[in-house]
Amino acid sequence: MPGSAERAFDSESLLRSLMENVPGAIYRAANDSNWTTQRVSDEIESITGYPAADFIGGSKQTIVSVTHPDDRAPVEQEIAAALSADRPFALEYRIMHADGGIRWVLERGVKTIDRYGVEWLDGIIFDITERRAAEQLAVERELEALRVAELEASRARIIAAADAARRRIERDLHDGAQQRLVVAALQLRAAERALEPDGDAAALLRAARAELDAGLAELRELARGIHSAVLTDCGLGRAVRALAARSLVPVQVDDAVGQRLPPAVETALYYVVSEAITTSTATPASHATVRLRRRGDSVEVEVADDGRGGADRTRGSGLRGLDDRLGAVNGELELDSPAGGGTRLRARVPIA
């Protein structure tokens, strides 16, 4: 069997091999107030920027002295508690590099007692700066994703609230002011019939009724512009055909959806068609087409005209507003409007 001298040589050889090959700074420190370093591998220089010789005997540096000031107290408390309980410790903290930078390290250690009864602190220190940076980046990305999700949810809530307000105003106009004006028109018509047809009073009543009828027509148009009751009651296809019927530009509608869609999707696509027809009228175009299609788990609306083109989604609030509306339902908008080449607007919204 090998003698004690041979065993000591083997242990020293193993320790030397570990200190040269393990990717971390292996150390032995005294169990004193400064944990004075007795031995440390050369890897400590790549971690701290100071050579291993500076740490031996605490001649120039100690592990405590390069520990970040804000981390010294918790590090010392954790190590002291582990040593007192005779348990290993593992902790992460910051150190100050010789170049002025900050590095993150993972230190693992345990109290040992040599054959002479002397207590030591044996451990190893790893540079985990890259890992901590990756973790911080992942946290920042997750927080950013949460912020984006909250912004999208907030935008959806704002648009939904605006649409609800539009529906309420349209309903109030229809059930309130519009009905009162209709009653007033009927009363004027009755008064007109009760008077001499050629009298001045009858003429005045006819003029007043004509003005009232014109006002009612404008009020109905205003109510439709605020929110389409046809859209709520009958769905996107019927509402688009109603838009086409009122358009100053002839509009052909090709509806291949044939079913009700989620209300938020119908509303977003309705306003796409409304804005596109308005653009066609302003161009002006001689005709336009509207196509409604299902594409797998999405619905697609395309509006094309033969106007002068040149539409720009960065100018004016109409197309920018469509981006917001479609974004609230995870949709996307494509615009193709070369100068002199007409305008094609395509919106696609997932409905799965």
What would you say this structure looks like, in words?
- There is one protein chain.
- This protein has 352 residues and is of the alpha+beta class.
- The protein has ten helices and ten strands.
- It has helices at 4-21, 43-48, 63-66, 69-84, 129-194, 200-226, 229-234, 236-246, 263-282, 318-328; strands at 25-30, 37-40, 89-96, 102-113, 119-127, 251-255, 288-295, 298-305, 332-336, 343-350.
- Strands 2-1-5-4-3 form a five-stranded antiparallel beta sheet, sandwiched between helices. A five-stranded mixed beta sheet has the order 6-7-8-10-9, with helices on one face.
- Helix 9 (263-282) links the parallel strand 6 and strand 7 (288-295).
- Helix 5 packs antiparallel against helix 6, helix 8 packs parallel to helix 9 and helix 9 (263-282) runs antiparallel to helix 10 (318-328).
- The longest helix is centred in the middle third of the chain and has 66 residues, at 129-194.
- The chain is elongated, with a radius of gyration of 40 Å.
- Residues 5-11 have low confidence and may be disordered.
Give me a quick take on this structure:
The chain is an alpha+beta fold and 352 residues long. The protein is built from ten helices and ten strands. The strands form two sheets. Strands 2-1-5-4-3 form a five-stranded antiparallel sheet, with helices on both faces. The protein has a five-stranded mixed sheet with strand order 6-7-8-10-9, with helices on one face.
The backbone outline, from C-alpha atoms, is elongated
CATH topology of the largest domain: Heat Shock Protein 90
Spatial order of the strands in the main sheet? 2-1-5-4-3
**Rg over C-alpha atoms, rounded to the nearest angstrom:** 40 Å
